[in-house]
Amino acid sequence: MKKINTKNSVCTILVIFFFITTSLFGQTLVSGIINNNTTWTQANSPYLVTGNTMITETATLNVEPGVVVKFSSNVQLLLRGKLFCRGTVSDTIKFIANNGVTGWNGIRVDNSSSSYNPKVKLKYFKAKKAATLFDVVSMTNGIDTLIKLTHCVFDSISSVINQDNDVKSYIVYIDSCSFSRISYYVNIGASNNIIKNSKIHGNYRAFYNNTSQGTIIDNCEFSGFSDNAILVNGIITNSNFFNNKVAICTMNLNYTIIKYNYIHDNVTGIDINNYQGNTSLNKINFNKICNNTNGVRNTDNTFYKDAYVPYNCWCLTDSSQIQSVVYDFFDAGGRGFVFYMPFDTSCTYSGIGLGLNNTVKSEFLNVNVYPNPFNNEFSININFEMPTTVDISFSDILGRRLFNIYKGVVNSGNQNIKYNSMELERGIYFIVIKSGTETVTKKVIKY
């Protein structure tokens, strides 16, 4: 079995040569098999991966803050175990091509056997100049979060995540990341995707998911895409789309909600496609759709269904002006209509939900909800200086009150209120906490 080379090994002539090389050039050479828990340290950085390397299902590779890993051309890391890269804001971990070459082959995440248990967790991490960074092979389900990316930077990569396009139960979670010069996809495939607080600037497309599984996109920025920025089933909220050929294309409007977004200066703002019933009512509302060549296009010529997009702001005051940026039956026979009345001339509807106050309104009131996103159970932590009467309710994305969580007196100090949400569908919700004349609203996501 091929073993990982290390600085301290002096068992063979090859390793002796390796020791001399690393002593001269200050780098640690790597290739082969990692079958035990291993840590790559900043002291031994940079690491140069010279050949294909596998992390077996029995191993976890931990990478310390500040470590730089360089990959030779066409080299790939095969992951059947776990990869944890935990950088810091001042010590980012970097996976880059050696000597600036293009074409290292990224990381193959192998979940093709029930005996494998791959997981990827990256924080304050940067990757540059790769083909597909994470090529996911999955024949099994049951993994909670397969890939978690927070505070990461991805630059000059063909595709960041490429999954085979079957239904998957695992989660891909992206928060506070930056993607630039992505020539193909940020994420293509069928998992449960959660993307928050991220900036995506690329060449072709960002996200594609054509199954009934949901993608949740919230508080993100998309620009510079030469095709559709996103083609997904899911919930798209509080995001900014500009300078794209198509900002949003619905893969199936039966599963898609588009609300509270700023969609402007694109060739096409929203391309409505592939839905099998008049179910679009109340699914595309409260957006600001301005200065697009085509604000909304109903391009579905298979099911011939009408699209309903009321209560949006078009930055226009006249219905004939709005009709000029709408593409529907009047422009091409065989398509349905786009019904956009009533529309908002003052933009008072659009922006509802943008920048919801997730901070404390009062010095004596402190509210936190965790975990967020949550699966089945979440906790509400409230801190009062004195016993206080509160009313805590749960609302959907339209602001409709669904049910009451708690109503009564909360004692002084920290108080935790737990709630089990197994009956809720996946999506974005609001927890509304009222105390006297004050209200705190918390946006939460169930995955």
Relative strand content:
over 45%
CATH hierarchy: architecture of the largest domain: 3 Solenoid
Shape: globular
> How would you sum up the major sheet?
6 strands, parallel, barrel
Low-confidence sequence ranges: 1-24, 352-364
Please give the alpha-carbon distance between the first and last residues.
41 Å
**How many discrete structural domains?**
3
Let me know the number of strands: 39
Q: Could you give a quick summary of the protein structure above?
A:
By secondary structure, the chain is mainly β. It has two helices and 39 strands.
What does it look like?
The chain is built from 2 helices and 39 strands. It is mainly beta and 447 residues long. Mean pLDDT is 81; it is low at 1-24 and 352-364.
Write the layout of secondary structure elements.
Elements: H1 13-25, E1 28-34, E2 38-40, E3 47-55, E4 60-63, E5 68-71, E6 77-79, E7 82-86, E8 93-97, E9 107-111, E10 119-138, E11 145-163, E12 171-175, E13 178-182, E14 187-188, E15 192-196, E16 199-202, E17 207-208, E18 215-218, E19 221-223, E20 228-232, E21 234-237, E22 240-242, E23 246-250, E24 257-259, E25 262-264, E26 268-272, E27 284-285, E28 288-290, E29 294-298, E30 307-308, H2 319-324, E31 326-327, E32 338-339, E33 365-370, E34 377-384, E35 388-395, E36 401-410, E37 413-420, E38 427-435, E39 438-446
